[in-house]
Each structure stands twice: as structure tokens, then as C-alpha cells.
Write a structure and sequence with these properties.
The protein is of the alpha+beta class. The protein folds into two domains: 132 residues, OB fold (Dihydrolipoamide Acetyltransferase, E2P), CATH 2.40.50.140; 260 residues, 2-Layer Sandwich (BirA Bifunctional Protein, domain 2). It is 34% helix and 25% strand. A hairpin with a 3-residue loop joins strand 1 and strand 2. The protein binds one RNA strand through helix 1, strand 1, strand 2, strand 3 and helix 4. It holds the Pfam family tRNA-synt_2. Homodimer.
RNA sequence: GGGCCGCUAGCUCAAUGGCAGAGCUGAGGACUUUUAAUCCUUAGGUUCAGGGUUCGAGUCCCUGGCGGCCCA
């Protein structure tokens, strides 16, 4: 504590002992003319390649093969004249290195014991061997520091608290292999979706995230400001209105995978920024999108698990194979209530049903909105196996085409898996006059203070007036797809989720 | 938004209102075949923050912060 062995720029007395010790080791290296953070270190082969090439090497064998390897120190077992260390590489592969007095010499062995801590990144050059216990190892002739860690690693064999996992994902990634697996799984899923859509001749585009008007969904937007335009801008809540402009222009199969932003609650299924796939296909409808969506998810499952049966992190298996259940919104409500409910059922009757099942009712709700609330209250959580819920009331789906058989309904489905909504699709409303009426009604709500209502996007309506082909459109939450495939919470599927300031 | 639970050493956790502890990690020492090595010695604390009750508060009360679970 009285030693002045840390640089003056560091408030030494504020640091825990273990961090002071590591800083002191760094300083000692510098004082001895050794780089604690060299620009390069020798590396001729990955740990994974060694494991692959020497998989069959028998116990206590010397190969004569010289290699240089790198990795993070995750276990140290040091003896007087022989030290063992377990190195781990980015892909999770671990390999043992051995440093013996007769190979590296007394001086370098002492420096190893003096300078190397758990968590450091080191490079080791030596011979590939197996130990007397049969452990594949690099028997060092020399070693060097790749990067000195100034903070101690958390205990490797106790789980990190959930909060630390999220706030310090880099630590989570270092100590928990599953955290790294999740990153890989997500990349695999996104790549699979892209390939699935490319195979069906969809084009990938990027549409504006900064928008003058927010639309395409009902949600509260984030507001930001453009100095150049001296105007407020919205972070998009959905790419829908721009993707439809693309379809108007003749991009007949189009999709985007990117972030949307919604200024709403944060919980185990909602993140303020979330990744979404949105896809449109001209001359298709919600039935076509239903088949494709199932195929894309099944192809993603295949990419991740090699099968349509995915295994969640808690070991439960979820079968996403075959055809999926299909029910109608009103059919599901009727079954749950034991009463016949249709689009014709009036608001007063629905309110009586709501009271019967102890659902709180907002007097501003339309009959359609109340029907949806009844569904969410009674049915949603029961839909564990993948289920398409079809045919929603017009009042709650302003951008959806009227149902071709039943007046008052629209051609929209929601896909539920594991009790939450994973995707939605419409036969798109392409009549510009009706579209204008619907958006005008929305804009009146917005002007009246409903922060979730859409604003009137005249440019979008102008585009529609040039004629949009009859189309199917779908949207799916990427984070939620990961949740469905892995069983993880949304904050585990997002690498760096938004957290409250510390 | 409401209810409940939690926040203590670098990490994971203990501690009837009565001396703040353990394991791992760290430091010093022993060990040339270890696998979360082992053995000996030892250091480490603004108990989330701020008030209050009390002779005495990690513990009880209040306010706030952060997190988790359940409900809306």
C-alpha cells in the first residue's frame, strides 16, 4: 500500500489489491524492456488445428513438431520445475502447454511464475507432445506475453450473476462457452434466413432508419434531431412503408434484415432495439407467406441443430418439423370461452365476456381490439407448439387487405411459438383510396395524442397511387426466432442489449 | 404501472440486533506429469446510496438506485 509501483495516472489506493498486483507486473515488464502488449507474437497454428491433427497421438509421445500457439490462460498448475497451463482460444478450444526447467531455463520459468496470471493472453513456442497422463500439450521452448490482463477473471466454475453477464458481456464470453455459442447460433440463423430468401429470388435492400414520419406499425418511436435539416427525425419502428415503395417500383421480391426501435417497455421478451426480417412478395398472399415462413424457420432450425427438432438450453426438445397448427382468431376465442364469438359479435357482448374472464377493459377499445385482447388473455400463452392464428379484425390491422370471404376480417396471421408472437404476415392492402382512409384515421388518433398511432405519410400514399401489385408481406423478430430456437431470454440472444446506466 | 425477492472481499455466497466470515482468486513458500492440482503461511471490506430507530444496524424502519421473478 505504501509502494509507489503503479503509474501516477492510476489512483492506486482506489484499486483492489489484485488489480494493483497486475499493474505492477505490467510495470515490471516495461522496466525490464519486455512488451506487455507486443504488436505481434509468433503463431503458426491454431489450438483447434493441433487438436485435429494430433487427435490420435498416444500417451507420453514426442512428435518433434515445432509450433507456436496463442491463447488465454484459464487454468494454471505450477510446480517447482514444471508448470502446466491451460490455454483457450476464441472458438473455445482448449490446449495444455507445459513449461519445464530443462527446456525454457531457470530464468524464463521464474518469469513465467512471476508475471503470468489467470486471464492473460500468452504465446508459447515448443514441441507437440502428449503428457504422461495422455494430455495433448505444447512443451515450451519459449513463451511470451501477448497481452497482460489487468483485471482478474471471475471464478470459472461458478456462474456469473445474470446482471454481470449482460453488463460485461466480454467477461461472459471469456468464461462461459455457451455465451460464445449463442453468438455463433445467431450468426448461423441470420445467414440461414438470408440464404433461404436468396434461394427464392428475394433481393436484400436497406431502407431508411432515420425517418421524417413514423409508420408501418403501431408503436411509440424514438425521436432524434437533424441539425442539417433543423427538424426532428424518428428512428424507424418498421421498414414496411419503404419496402412497399420498392414493390411498387417493381422489386417484386424484397427483404430487409435490420434493426427497428420502439420506445416502449423492456422485459424478458421486449428490447427497445430489435432485429427484424421483413419480406414482401408480389402476386403472393398471406397463404404463400405462411408456407414460406414455416420453411425459413425450419431451414434455420436445420442450420442450427441439423434437424427440425431443436434442443433448448435447459435440455427440452422442441419439434418444429412438419406442418404447423392453424387456427382462426375468433375460433380460438370461441373455444376458450365456450361461446360462439365472431366478427359480428358486438362490443357490449364482448365486454360481458371480458368481465366473465376478469379481463380489464379500456373503454376506448373497439370490438376488434377487445377481441384481440381476449385472445391474448385466454389463448396466447397456451400456444407452445408453432401455431398460425389467422384472420384478424379490420379495426386492428389498418394495412391489411380485406378478407376475401368474410366482411370485417382481414387476411392477417400471427405465428406463435413457445407462447409468444414470433412473426406476422398480411395479404397487403394495396387499394390507395382505402389505404388513405385508414391512414387518415390513424393520423387523427396521432393528432389526438395517441403516441402509437401512425402519421399520415403522403409520399407513401403517392407511391401506392401508382399501383402496387397484390402482395404478401411478412415480418419476423430475429431475436425472438433465436429465443424460439434456443429457449434463451431476449437479453441473452442480443450480444450487447441496452441496460440502464450503472 | 403493481406485488414479492435480492444487492456483503476480484468472483460466488454465509453471518438471532452484539468481534463481518467461507470457498475460489491474490500474495509468500514447497513440489518435473498436473487436469477446478495438492500442502503450509497470509492479505483482502465505504456490507448499493442517503436518512431514521437503538447503548449497539449487514440485520429493523423510511426514501432513492440497480437487478430478478410474478402480475397488468
Amino acid at each position: 500500500m505504501t509502494e509507489q509501483n503503479t503509474p501516477a495516472t492510476e489512483p492506486a489506493e482506489d484499486l483492489p489489491e489484485q488489480m494493483r498486483v497486475r499493474r505492477a507486473k505490467r510495470d515490471r515488464m516495461l522496466a525490464e524492456g519486455v512488451q506487455p502488449y507486443p504488436v505481434t507474437v509468433p503463431r503458426t497454428i491454431s489450438l483447434a488445428q493441433i487438436r485435429e491433427q494430433y487427435a490420435e497421438l498416444p500417451t507420453d509421445t514426442a512428435t518433434g513438431d515445432q509450433v507456436s500457439v496463442t491463447g488465454r490462460v484459464i487454468f494454471i498448475r505450477s510446480g517447482g520445475k514444471l508448470c502446466f497451463v491451460t490455454l483457450r482460444e476464441g472458438d473455445g478450444t482448449e490446449l495444455q502447454a507445459m513449461l519445464s526447467l530443462d527446456r525454457v531455463g531457470a530464468e524464463r520459468l521464474e518469469e513465467w511464475k512471476r508475471l503470468v496470471d489467470l486471464g492473460d493472453l500468452v504465446a508459447v513456442t515448443g514441441e507437440v507432445i502428449t503428457s504422461r497422463r495422455g494430455e495433448l500439450s505444447v512443451l515450451a521452448d519459449s513463451w511470451s506475453m501477448s497481452a497482460k490482463a489487468l483485471r482478474p477473471l471471475p471464478v470459472a466454475h461458478k456462474p456469473l450473476s445474470e446482471e454481470t453477464r449482460v453488463r460485461q458481456r466480454y467477461v461472459d464470453l471469456i468464461v462461459r462457452p455457451q455465451a460464445r455459442d449463442t453468438v455463433r447460433t445467431r450468426a448461423t440463423v441470420v445467414r440461414s434466413l438470408r440464404e433461404s430468401l436468396f434461394r427464392r429470388n428475394y433481393l436484400e435492400v436497406e431502407t431508411p432508419m432515420l425517418q421524417l414520419l413514423h409508420g408501418g406499425a403501431t408503436a411509440r418511436p424514438f425521436v432524434t434531431h437533424s441539425n442539417a435539416l433543423d427538424t426532428d427525425l424518428y428512428l424507424r419502428i418498421a421498414p414496411e412503408l419503404f419496402l412497399k415503395r420498392a414493390v411498387v417500383g417493381g422489386i417484386d421480391r424484397v427483404f430487409e434484415i435490420n434493426r427497428n426501435f420502439r420506445n416502449e417497455g423492456m422485459d424478458s421478451t421486449h428490447s427497445p432495439e430489435f432485429a427484424m426480417l421483413e419480406a414482401y412478395q408480389a402476386y403472393a398472399d398471406y397463404n404463400v407467406m405462411q408456407v414460406q415462413t414455416r420453411e425459413w424457420i425450419q431451414e434455420a432450425a436445420q442450420a442450427v441443430a441439423g434437424s427440425h427438432v431443436v434442443t433448448h438450453h435447459d435440455g427440452t426438445e422442441v419439434d418444429l418439423g412438419g406442418e404447423w397448427n392453424q387456427i382462426t382468431l375468433f375460433g380460438a376465442i370461441s373455444e376458450a370461452l365456450g361461446e360462439e364469438v365472431t366478427i359480428e359479435t358486438d362490443l357490449a357482448q364482448l365486454q360481458r365476456y371480458a368481465e366473465k374472464v376478469q379481463l380489464g377493459v379500456d373503454p376506448k377499445w373497439s370490438a376488434g381490439k377487445l377481441a384481440e385482447e381476449l385472445f391474448e388473455h385466454l389463448v396466447q400463452h397456451t400456444l407452445q407448439a408453432p401455431t398460425f392464428v389467422r384472420d384478424y379484425p379490420e379495426q386492428t390491422a389498418p394495412l391489411t387487405a380485406p378478407h376475401r370471404e368474410t366482411p370485417g376480417l382481414t387476411e392477417k396471421w400471427d405465428l406463435y411459438v413457445g407462447g409468444f408472437e414470433l412473426a406476422t404476415a398480411y395479404s397487403e392492402l394495396v387499394d390507395p383510396v382505402v389505404q388513405r382512409e385508414r391512414l387518415h384515421a390513424q393520423s387523427l388518433l396521432a393528432a389526438g395524442g395517441d403516441a402509437e398511432a401512425m402519421q399520415l405519410d403522403e409520399d407513401f400514399l403517392r407511391a401506392m397511387e401508382y399501383g402496387m401489385p397484390p402482395s404478401g408481406g411478412m415480418g419476423m423478430g430475429i431475436d425472438r426466432l433465436l429465443m424460439a430456437l434456443t429457449g434463451l431470454g431476449i437479453r441473452e440472444t442480443i450480444l450487447f442489449p441496452l441496460v440502464r446506466p450503472e
